[in-house]
């Protein structure tokens, strides 16, 4: 989460020989980022890869919609009890009867908020921990002397 917020560096082509060019296209099927020339080279016209849809370059390739591995349907809800994503069929099955189920978007927002607060707490405590480490190292040096 923290890395996705602070990404400011250019995404480079993963197939260029040095010096690498900046990536202009991505491919979710290949899970790679390409410059224009490498994209053409690795997705030649008339091949199966030519059917791959170019996307903007990224460092994390995720499918367009998450699919339920059991029912092969798009997941639309989150089961708070099981802490997993569920599709419409999973939701009505007995396995989740009586469970707290919410839409994916609201679950995402709640979990993101919780993660943001936890990250802020950790970062605010970082200076205190570093100070304590320095004090302990100083105590070790003093004890050794």
Automatic annotation (TrEMBL):
Q: Name one Pfam family in it.
A: zf-B_box
GO BP? anterograde synaptic vesicle transport; axonogenesis; microtubule bundle formation; neuron migration
- Keyword annotations of the record: Metal-binding, Zinc, Zinc-finger
Q: Which GO terms describe its cellular component?
A: axon cytoplasm; main axon
Which domain of life does the protein's organism represent? Eukaryota
Q: Name one GO molecular function term.
A: zinc ion binding
Name of the protein in its database record: TRI46 protein
Q: Which organism is it from?
A: Smutsornis africanus (Double-banded courser)
Q: What is the lineage of its organism?
A: Eukaryota, Metazoa, Chordata, Craniata, Vertebrata
């Amino acid at each position: 989460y923290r890395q996705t917020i602070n990404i400011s560096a250019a995404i480079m082509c993963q197939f260029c020989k040095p010096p690498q060019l900046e990536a202009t296209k991505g491919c979710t099927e290949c899970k790679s980022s390409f410059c224009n020339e490498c994209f053409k080279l690795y997705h030649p016209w008339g091949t199966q890869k030519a059917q791959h849809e170019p996307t903007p370059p990224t460092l994390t390739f995720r499918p367009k919609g998450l699919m339920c591995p059991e029912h092969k349907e798009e997941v639309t809800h989150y089961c708070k009890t099981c802490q997993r994503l569920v599709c419409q069929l999973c939701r009505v099955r007995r396995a989740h009867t009586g469970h707290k189920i919410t839409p994916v978007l609201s679950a995402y927002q709640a979990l993101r908020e919780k993660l943001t607060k936890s990250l802020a707490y950790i970062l605010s405590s970082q200076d205190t921990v570093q100070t304590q480490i320095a004090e302990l190292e100083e105590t070790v040096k003093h004890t050794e002397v």
